[in-house]
Model the fold of this input.
Amino acid sequence: MTETAAPGLQALFDPAHRADPYPTYRRWREDTPVAGPMPGLFVVTRHADCAAVLRDSRFGHAEPDEPNLLRPAPPTDAETALVDENGNPVRSFLGLNPPDHTRLRKLVSKAFTRPMVARLAPRIEQLTTDLLDGMAKRTGQVDLIESLAYPLPVAVISELLGIPNADRDQFVAWSHSLARGLDPDFALPPGTRENLVRTRGEFAEYIRGLAAIRRADPGEDLLSALVQVHDSGDVLTENELLATCILLLIAGHETTVNLIGNGTLALLRAPGQLAALRDEPELVDHAVEEFLRYDSPVQLTMRAALEDAEIGGVEIARGSAALLVIGSANRDPDAVADPDALDVRREPTRHLAFGQGIHFCLGAPLARLEARIAFQALLARFPALRLAAEPAWKDNLILRGLATLPVHLT
Done:
């Protein structure tokens, strides 16, 4: 079987559909579940197919010096700002294949442990309470993104990494730029890549300086743990540390912002579900999994065919790229009943919001913890929370989230 022709990628990711891309995803899933909009590129929209690719060792990540259809020109040294002694770009373990991925993830996992995450709970609760206290002092319309969804994850990841308070505004600016740079080239406005070059350089210089301080005077933060982590003599190089910090910044901040924002909007548009969660706060763990499925903070991920393979009966030649539409997979009726309905009582499904296989999100426990605390506290403090106006969406494709979410608290 060969690939099926399909409309171009621009049609799939038309900005006009940004507020609700799911009808477009559904059409692709039903008509061309493994589509070939151009030679060597496949768009995959079914849950079973996406999950299979994520678990299949025949699919991985292309080398950075190999152009691909979504980023035609390979990154230059300046674009990465992180190169090894041979001048080769250094990537986080998220973009590596075994055995490099295995080595780096094992090292980072030794520092980013479940006990380290669990002990953050009291601090997350206090931060959430403080933010809600600030919201309660306001009158009229409040932007939930500005007031809660952004500052909470920023504070958590900053404290986790040991970022001083005075540097957090700059930290957020870097995060925005780095997150936008994840999108494919065709979706980026002019100048974005140049801005990304500058941001990576600034962030790398900052982390180098802070890491040097932590080596000389370690604290209880994750950065201190990362600069000291070792396994049978193996350690993170400086550039591997920098790449890991960039990954933790985006994964530990931007995605959680979107989880809180997208989940709150979904609740406000489903009053019955809002009432259910408000009246039965013990449903919060189910609700967080449903938010992750219903409007996934991560909508897309890429894999390269490392050898000849197949997806859903479609032959995939070595070197081809597979664009996995996670947002579509999580609304596949073959994977979940009534997928376009929000149901906070739904038993957790095998959603793909955190991926699957060897690249399953290392920060999933932290994201779930922050979201659980935030939603419980928000609805307990403001039981009459309601939408004040239509929200605005960010332009990002891969990381789907709101720029603003206007609400009335009472």
